[in-house]
Amino acid sequence: MNNLPEFLALGVAEELIPALIAKNFQTPSAIQSLAIPLLLSGEKDLIGQALTGTGKTAAFGLPVIQTLVPGKTPQALILAPTRELSIQIADELRSLSVNKPLRIVPFFGGQLITFQMDELKKGVDIAVGTPGRIMDLYRRGKLRLDQLKFAILDEADEMLDMGFIDDIREILSLTNPDKRMLMFSATMPPEIMDIAAEFMRPEYEIAKTSGGSATNTTLTEQYFHEVKREHKLDALSRLIDANSELYAMVFCRTRADVDEVTEKLHSRGYRVEALHGEISQAQRLRVINAFKKHKFPLLIATDVAARGIDVNDLTHVINYSLPQNSDIYIHRIGRTGRAGRHGVAVSFVTPGERRKLKLIEKDIGNEIPLKKLPEIADIIEAKKQLFAENIALLLENGDAAPYINFAEELCTLGSHPAEALAAMLKLYFKDELLPESYRDFSGGKQKSATDPNMKKLLLFSGRTDGLTVPELIREICERTGIKGSQLGKIILRADKTFINASPADAEKILAAFKNDKKWHFKYDSPKEEHRKKAYSPEKEKKKKIKTHKPLREEFFKWIAESE
Ligand code: ADP
Ligand code: MG
What we know:
alpha/beta
């Protein structure tokens, strides 16, 4: 059996190896190779710098776990910027210490402090917490900080960014001077060196893995799509539609962007959730947990809110907006292509941002090529292919066998079995596989259907009534004198059609077709349409196996249950 010789060679004890095997660690990451031997031999303090997602937690966690002897008073204190991170670090350390009865407990605001005081009374070996709550517990006389073997600042740069500097200073000054102090961080701003100068013993070591060489970038394919700002949402919808296995984080620059993108995708029926600083802690925690459990495939976030969240199996990182600099770019894309899996980093770049992209390319020493967005035909093809694969799977498993008699009966309905099958496809997909039901923005000449100045009309007649778009335009133009090019987007559905037009034109159309038996127009109420789309029961049933849309009700149900 493989007993992970590379970890043993770093000095990791045999008793910890089964935990690593269980976690499917195979080789140490760069920061682990540097930091673990330093921490297991010697007594020096240490600054560890490596990109997000490179295994910094285990880099300090393994030596700490190996060194400590189970006791009662905290022997290691780990400070982290947020409660999610505190929980995540505690979880990671627990999973690394399955063979050792160490008590590892997260402490954070928002949880009953009396509960946390009880935990301390029972005995804690490793306390992980946010500076505020740690300070609070100390002041209440419940947390001892004078028996520490290790004091560790994790995500130190982030804690400084969040203004924890005073709390950190105070906490560190309360700890016993003979502990080892460690700081881990993705970046090394000067303030960190200040802390080091003030609180670390002078001979401290620095373990730094070089900038762009995160272990995962080789597994990450990077490219960009050129997308005008007003088409970004459509572009994102296409990416979602084209990738049935998508499990992605989408990065926006501001909170407002996050909210807007989330809302608009909701209204298009996609299952996405938002994460930013203004969302309540309880909600954030729920969203993160649900995302980790793949309850929904797309998380829309700001950089700060997403910081340190550890998800291993993202298929894509999507830069909805380019980040301000290459450091943030690397952080973002470091979240995919992990744990031996292939990942994709896609950036939406507006024509004006090409120079900014060049700068990022220069900094990271990598070319980021341009790629065309998936065409509508590609999306439809992807859906067809997935469907065919599902069919093949059912056939292979024999799961469809109970329906064979009914199938034979249905086949007699058409003059050819394919006709019956086609009818079934229509029933199942409605118009989903027809190009007309997609919004085409690539030509860019038409006013977008979402143009806020346009009015949306609903015509109670559609493809099954023999209606075609050219016929409709001809009819409207003849009766109203409006030019075809003045009209906005036209969406032809089976039983109805949507026509976008300027308010004045919309009025003209309504007047021209008033009381017409065949052509019955009215103003569409967009909210209703969205709701119908998002919650239509047939859609929910089928989406379960194949796309990212609906299922929102299920998600809410899950949210409600977990409350
Ligand atoms: P960082 O703190 O550097 O952002 P984490 O410590 O959160 O990174 O680790 C990111 C993920 O990588 C975690 O899920 C962790 O379990 C995993 N990981 C850490 N080290 C290894 C390794 N040597 N092999 C495989 N996965 C690892
Ligand atoms: Mg970390």
